């Protein structure tokens, strides 16, 4: 087992990783920016190193400073969490070149899945369904127009190097395509350093369903069920649940088999997620992308399957067998996660500030993974996520009821907060029915 672990992240996910490491008797090292010096994860680690100023490029994305921190503290391994350097193949490779253990998939798998077009082509070759789209980047606007005409409108214009819902636009006709192509391309060049653009069929009514996979140390890839992620704003997830209310046992079998094939196609090791779009009218699903890291929403899978995914990640990285029997995975109950963000509940615009009051709910089936306590400041330098409220019940109805009670008992004063949105959503007939899609938030507004 790994004896010391550096957590190359911040906030709730850093606390989450530290919590499991502490339970396993692993010494932890936190790295933090100057702006985050007073956050709980820094105090909860056995050792902490400041790696730079607030700007993420100078701290949490500062690979050289993070490697130096690992060496100076004697850390054996690095866990990147999600975001920042978690899907940076060069960083993963550098970690291992420095004699450290990388708690994540290999650099080759990260590279293979990092480019959307390459990933689509690999998945198609492996027999994973992909939506109609380009097999090569649309080199210029004229090529995009030709591709869109062949695919048929509406189309999605996507940054090939993008991810997490960033760098996408919808075009319903050629005029819109000309606008969206230039917009997405310039965004991709600015954000990802790669202006390659993919044109893909757009489905006006679709559900976002993903499968949690785990590549084991012995080479096997297993699937730990699916998560429904269709409650989104600006293509960014707000609510996740498992199992998906849209997935029948027969469809689940197809989903999980496709996800395992996806992982096997790239020799996947460690935790990852195969994201898909599900057409509820036909029950057809299509590969969207693979996230080569731990997901924000991993707790719903943990509650339904009774596993600690961070522990499993560490065990895989150490070359150890999992704590569970891969041939006897069985889900139970229902879990829902709500992302508590520092943003207003109507337009979802960020609203950082000093937390005057922070009261977390408690009770049977309630879990809170938070990054802050009263007195902390939510700064404008990072993602607006403050905490994740996760509830578990014997079935979906019980989970929703527990979520309503927990939301009512969660008090945040200071920064803006989206808790009122969740109170509204949990009473909304479309969500309660389970028959919703990615357009639900827009219809509520």
From TrEMBL:
SUPFAM superfamilies assigned to the protein according to its UniProt record, in alphabetical order: Glutathione synthetase ATP-binding domain-like (SSF56059), PreATP-grasp domain (SSF52440), Rudiment single hybrid motif (SSF51246)
Domain of life: Bacteria
Root EC class: ligase
GO molecular-function term, one example from the UniProt record: biotin carboxylase activity
Keywords: ATP-binding, Biotin, Ligase, Nucleotide-binding
EC numbers, comma separated: 6.3.4.14
InterPro entries membership: ATP-grasp, BC-like_N, Biotin_carboxylase_complex, Biotin_carboxylation_dom, Biotin_COase_C, CPAse_ATP-bd, PreATP-grasp_dom_sf, Rudment_hybrid_motif
Coiled coil spans: none
Protein name: biotin carboxylase
Organism: Micromonospora sagamiensis
């Amino acid at each position: 087992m790994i004896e010391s672990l550096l957590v190359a992240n911040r906030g709730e996910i850093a606390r989450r990783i530290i919590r499991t490491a502490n339970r396993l008797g692993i010494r932890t090292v936190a790295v933090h920016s100057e702006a985050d010096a007073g956050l709980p994860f820094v105090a909860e680690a056995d050792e902490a190193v400041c790696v730079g100023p607030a700007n993420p490029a100078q701290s949490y994305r500062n690979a050289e400073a993070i490697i130096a921190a690992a060496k100076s503290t004697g850390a054996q391994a690095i866990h990147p969490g999600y975001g920042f350097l978690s899907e940076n193949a060069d960083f993963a490779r550098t970690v291992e070149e420095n004699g450290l253990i990388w708690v994540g998939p290999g650099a080759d798998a990260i590279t293979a899945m990092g480019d959307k077009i390459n990933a689509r082509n690999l998945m198609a070759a492996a027999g994973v369904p992909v939506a109609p789209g380009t097999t090569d980047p649309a080199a210029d606007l004229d090529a995009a127009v030709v591709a869109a005409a062949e695919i048929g409108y509406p189309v999605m214009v996507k940054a090939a190097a993008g991810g997490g819902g960033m760098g996408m636009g919808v075009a319903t006709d050629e005029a819109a395509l000309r606008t969206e192509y230039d917009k997405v391309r310039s965004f991709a060049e600015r954000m990802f350093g790669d202006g390659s653009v993919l044109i893909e069929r757009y489905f006006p009514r679709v559900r976002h369903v993903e499968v949690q996979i785990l590549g084991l140390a012995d080479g096997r890839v297993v699937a730990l069920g699916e998560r429904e992620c269709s409650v989104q704003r600006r293509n960014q997830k707000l609510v996740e649940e498992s199992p998906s209310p849209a997935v029948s046992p027969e469809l689940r079998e197809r989903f999980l088999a496709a996800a395992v094939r996806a992982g096997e196609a790239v020799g996947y090791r460690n935790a990852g997620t195969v994201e898909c779009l599900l057409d509820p009218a036909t029950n057809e699903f299509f590969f969207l992308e693979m996230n080569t890291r731990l997901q924000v929403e991993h707790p719903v899978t943990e509650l339904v399957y009774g596993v600690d995914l961070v522990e499993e990640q560490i065990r895989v990285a150490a070359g150890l067998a999992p704590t569970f029997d891969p041939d006897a995975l069985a889900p139970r109950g229902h879990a829902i996660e709500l992302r508590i963000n520092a943003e207003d509940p109507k337009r979802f615009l960020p609203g950082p500030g000093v937390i005057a009051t922070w009261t977390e709910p408690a009770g049977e089936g309630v879990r809170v993974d938070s990054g802050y306590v009263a007195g902390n400041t939510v700064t404008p330098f990072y993602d607006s996520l403050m905490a994740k409220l996760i509830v578990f019940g014997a079935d979906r109805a019980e989970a929703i009821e527990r979520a309503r009670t927990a939301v009512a008992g969660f008090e945040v004063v200071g920064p803006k907060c989206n808790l009122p949105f969740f109170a509204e959503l949990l009473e909304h007939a479309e969500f309660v029915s389970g028959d919703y899609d990615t357009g639900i938030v827009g219809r509520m507004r």
